[in-house]
Design brief:
Two copies of one chain form a homodimer. Chain A contains ten helices and no strands. Chain A is mainly alpha-helical and about 200 residues long. The longest helix of chain A is centred in the middle third of the chain and has 23 residues, at about 115-140.
Chain lengths: ~200, ~200
């Protein structure tokens, strides 16, 4: 191999993912090539294709981290907790991690909104997360439908909170998530029961 | 125009949509062309493109009917009904309409599951329905977040009920939908409150 570039590159995947996001934001998704991405990361195109099937996948490299975070939280949850509590707590922890990289998360989401191929991939990612969460909670002995519904509700809370956060709400992502889950619960209480957040 | 085919064709759109579904089920999505679809419907390819932007859109022609059904139900709902009730009732009515064409709905869904481009389009359709439902309920004076959450919950109930129905559950789609919405409500009740359906 020319130029002494080793076969193993420390965090090649992370560097490629970062370069992909940066270049797509600078030049647009359609105008960015895998060769550009590899060059920006100081790696070969061959290394790119050892790590990702295509350009689009490099932009969704973070999905694995999201699944790992949710999996770790759910496996650490007490056995007595309800499916909905387990999922809410896991998503809240994920929101905290995303908040600590707020600038990066925001930039990535701007990029996703810029292209229909990325928006569609993003919807498919949510759908995959519902499946993963369902299976993780199923493994705790929760019946199928209850597990799926708790997973769906957690993702609804996440998506609604994320959209509010991205649109410029003052609160942090974890706070917005907790508020949104509380607002969902509020839909199932009469107007006089319990404390109700004002979701307007 | 040769062959006396008039510019206006009675229900050309419906015939093309039906031919598209039939041919894609027979030969696969990739192997079906717009020319095949037009020929099967007894129409010209030109008429096809007056009605649909591409092959994929012809398979989603029913989306307009779904939106019309939901819009009609919501505009007929009493002003005093909550956002969640208005949406649940509208989706339940839609489920009834789909049940009355059970065979056609099932065939179409088999087709969607057969190709990733159709699955992605289907997810985008659900996302669009959430937006439409949100706007319809917003127009009744419901605050933004409450409207969006009620819309999201209605679509969660619909998707979960639909998957159970498609997987071969004995009950009808409207019954499964009502049961699923009840199971969501059950997640917000303690184990000793109210009657709980068994969602397992």
């Amino acid at each position: 191999m020319i130029g002494g570039m080793g076969r193993w590159e420390p965090d090649a995947r992370g560097r490629l993912a970062h370069a992909a996001t940066t270049l797509c934001l600078e030049h647009g998704y359609d105008k960015t090539t895998t060769a550009d991405i590899a060059a920006r990361a100081g790696l070969t195109e061959r290394t790119f294709f050892r790590n990702f099937a295509d350009k689009r996948e490099a932009l969704f490299a973070g999905s694995g981290v999201v699944e790992e975070s949710l999996t770790a939280s759910i496996s650490a949850a007490p056995a007595s907790a309800s499916a909905l509590t387990v999922i809410s707590d896991a998503v809240e922890a994920l929101c905290g991690e995303l908040q600590s990289d707020a600038g990066g998360v925001r930039r990535r989401h701007e990029l996703i909104l810029s292209h229909s191929a990325l928006r569609e991939r993003n919807l498919a990612k949510y759908d995959g997360l519902v499946d993963s969460l369902t299976q993780l909670v199923r493994a705790r002995g929760v019946p199928e439908v209850e597990a799926r519904l708790a997973a769906e509700l957690g993702m609804v809370g996440y998506r609604v909170a994320f959209d509010r956060w991205f649109a410029g709400a003052d609160e942090s992502l974890p706070t917005l998530f907790v508020e949104t889950m509380e607002a969902i619960a509020g839909l199932y209480r009469g107007p006089d029961e319990g404390t109700s957040v004002s979701p307007g």
